[in-house]
Write a structure and sequence with these properties.
The chain has twelve helices and nine strands. The chain is of the alpha+beta class. Helix 9 packs across helix 10, helix 9 runs antiparallel to helix 12 and helix 10 packs parallel to helix 12. The radius of gyration is 25 Å and the shape is elongated. The N and C termini lie far apart (55 Å).
């Protein structure tokens, strides 16, 4: 029709890195821009059934807070029960800007403040720490050591898949479990009987050891998700100090709580960098805007509480290391924190 423009777009059901939509559209779709309305067309996801093709007609007068993020377009629809965010991807950044230019340019006052503060925060982090080399090193080191340990056990004739995953039944798996328990001590686990009697270096080496692939996967995923942000906030050199001090504090709390413990894993250090993050954003003049502080507390607080509660329920979890790392990271965070304010250019 005359005056209408049609754009091919890509919808997602949401996620940490993808724009969501309230219609549950997923996959390819279309956006039709009319003089007073826009029409979104796509396939809605339905459990155990084929996707259903649908379209929704939205009034332009209800559209606010339009912005682009690369090739993504996002905006809010004003409704009776609050605003709903709608997002989708386009072919490239130019297409995203063309669509945004055809939509209303009105921003709500609250959103304008929050959006501006988030942009300022990202600009400050780009100025101080544009990359995260330490996180990459930690991921490679932990995964590499796990593979080396598995290869050393595999030479004894243990089955490769169950021994790598850390579960299963049978004589081969039982043999691998016995070899692994001895191997972890040999490679530097936090064995209280040894750590407290002259081998304090185990507080450090145990941070890079894991008992199973599942244990490793959970820790590395958490480290990747939280660590990137914390390294950029503290800076790579300070982040190394935060990570190691947190891990050592967690290991020390573990052996003091239970002198007979034999503990491994990076989780104490991971809890510590979360503690360091909370210490950082709680400081005056940190350079983290209030909107971002609220975002971080709202996102990481429930994750932290859930994992601490799960640690008390699951019998094999070393919660003393988690809590010790959290407390050590909080203290280290105050010592190592810097200001994210960008100095005035001369």
């Amino acid at each position: 029709m005359q005056g209408n423009s049609v754009h091919d777009v890509q919808f997602y059901r949401g996620g940490p890195n993808w724009p969501a939509n309230p219609f549950l559209f997923q996959g390819r779709g279309q956006l039709v821009i009319e003089p007073d309305f826009i029409v979104v067309r796509g396939s809605s996801h339905r459990s155990f059934r084929f996707p259903k093709r649908e379209e929704h007609r939205l009034r332009k007068v209800d559209i606010v807070n339009v912005r682009t993020e690369g090739q993504d377009v996002l905006f809010h629809m004003v409704g009776v029960q609050g605003n709903e965010e709608i997002g989708f991807s386009t072919a490239d950044g130019a297409a995203a800007k063309a669509i945004a230019a055809a939509l209303p340019a009105r921003w709500t006052p609250e959103f304008k403040v929050a959006y501006t503060e988030r942009e300022v925060f990202h600009d400050r982090m780009d100025y101080w720490s544009p990359s995260t080399p330490v996180i990459w090193f930690l991921l490679v080191a932990n995964i590499g050591i796990f593979l080396l340990m598995w290869l050393a056990r595999y030479r004894h004739g243990t089955p490769w898949m169950p021994t790598m995953l850390g579960w299963g039944k049978g004589p081969g798996v039982m043999l691998d479990a016995m070899i692994r328990s001895v191997q972890l001590v040999h490679w530097g686990s936090n064995d209280g009987r040894l750590t407290l009697h002259g081998q304090s270096w185990r507080l450090l080496t145990s941070l890079f050891l894991h008992g199973s692939m599942l244990h490793l996967a959970f820790n590395m995923l958490a480290l990747w998700q939280v660590g990137q942000l914390v390294e950029r906030i503290f800076g790579s050199v300070r982040f190394v100090g935060l990570y190691l001090l947190s891990g050592i504090a967690g290991g020390l709390a573990s052996v003091l709580w239970n002198p007979h413990v034999n503990s491994v894993g990076a989780s104490g250090a991971i809890f510590g960098i979360i503690g360091g993050l909370f210490a950082f954003i709680g400081r005056q003049n940190s350079g983290v805007p209030p909107t971002v502080v609220a975002d971080l507390r709202g996102a990481i607080g429930p994750f932290l509480l859930f994992n601490i509660a799960a640690g008390f329920l699951y019998p094999h979890t070393d919660n003393a290391a988690h809590l010790g790392g959290l407390a050590g990271g909080w203290l280290a965070g105050h010592l190592l924190a810097r200001s994210l304010h960008v100095p005035q250019q001369r």
